[in-house]
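Dissemination and training. As part of the outreach component of the grant, students in the summer workshop were shown how a complex can be specified as a set of sequence lines and then modelled as a single object. The example used during the hands-on session is reproduced here so that future cohorts can follow it. Participants entered these lines:
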Amino acid sequence: MKTKHQGWGWMLAVDFFFAGMGGGMLVIAGIIELFIGGGNTSLLGNILGPLFMCVGCGFLVLELGRPLQAWRVFMNPKAILTIGAWIMSIAIVSGFIYASFGIASDAIFWKDWTFFRQFFALVNIVTGLVVATYPGVLLGRHKGRPFWVGPGIMALFLLSSMVTGAAAHLFSGFLVSAPVSQEVLNNLPGLVAAMLFLQVVLWCGYIWIKLTGTTEAEAASAKRWLNGDLADGFKFLFLLMGTVLPLVMVLIPTILTQGIGSLLVLLGGVSMRMLVVRSGEDRTWLPGEQKYRARLPLGCEDFMKKVWDNK
Amino acid sequence: MARYAMVMDTRRCIGCHSCTAACKVNNELPTDIIYNPVTTVGPTGVFPDLHMSNLPLICMHCENTPCVDACPTGASIRRDDGIVYVDDPKCVGCLSCVMACPYGARVKNHDTGAVQKCDFCKDRVAEGKLPHCVKTCHQKARVFGDLDDETSEVFKLVNSSNATRLLGELNTEPFVFYIFEKR
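and obtained this result:
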């Protein structure tokens, strides 16, 4: 039934994508730094991580009804959005500081301070994980949104953030190969492929659980992904183009296939978030509410406003 | 301290939408914002045993407020007397509360960029008057009052055996109660 929806738009989905990918990049760079050694990820990748988060913040600000007052989102420490905004701010600063260690310039006098580099790598891992996970936590707590509610969405967002982060590092490594260890570059495709496979399994499980879930609203919301208006995007864009195809491509050991595969992973990540945010249109409807809202004027708001204002 | 609540007696509601209109006009709401829609449920059953009822909806002024918890700016406020409202200057229009509310009681005003909702006509209540929707309901289907006052009508209705809450399973503890016809 066609109804008028109040809710988040595509810009929040893009914010989730860039912030999640940036968070994932920070985590991967941090883990490689601490467990394999410094200088194994590309400088470009290390800079792009926090930069992508800045881009995400930009989209979040544009999504607001009053963008010029965006600073107010830092004000309520009990709100998930506030916690996310603070952690993301810390992650951006920490990410840029960590990236600066890789700049081969005498002006960067701290570039040989290994302890501090590892400290910021650790901060990047912690804050990056929070940034990668928090959209899922934010959505999973919405009691009245049947497709989102529950902890499952958190795992999906974390995994997608990690796989897009790894793919972005892989692509960055191809673009600027100088400081990248060949061993890391050789192992990233395997990691991306493994996470993509896990993504297919988790998504199939998630949809199936929702479909056979505890409430009718959950089942109805899942049907949109299989047979409804979200089905084409889910099956073609996300599952086929954004997950299965890149899974195959990154395993073919050529720069061309792995590069294209990495970009397709990003396509999958952004399309998944678009679909998830759009699925939040579904609410647990109150008796008769859907019929009521379907009768409200849709598409003639300007005319109604003109009449109302001139009453 | 008072604890305000409202009871919707659906047995009395005839679905005239007077409450919707009174709220909209007196609160000067834009065209696309409705604080208290009245939905129609049914008809259900098989002729001649048919049944149809009207359901007035409104912000539930919950005890456990997902909207207030979700607000990153502190613009969504729940007072000690239970009234939940939006402090307009603080609202940035992030829609966190809109998405968090399971009852669809909040809407964005596209002209101001902020979110609006029913506040039980708190300015009128402060003057000892009834909210516009309650005052205008000629069927007395809406009853408003202090739940801490044991002599109030709202106290008696809420403590009657047939008062219930919508989406009670979500544990938001709404302070708008419903009385349905027993069938």
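Residues 36 and 57 of chain B are 5 Å apart (CA to CA). Students were then asked to discuss how this feature might be tested experimentally.
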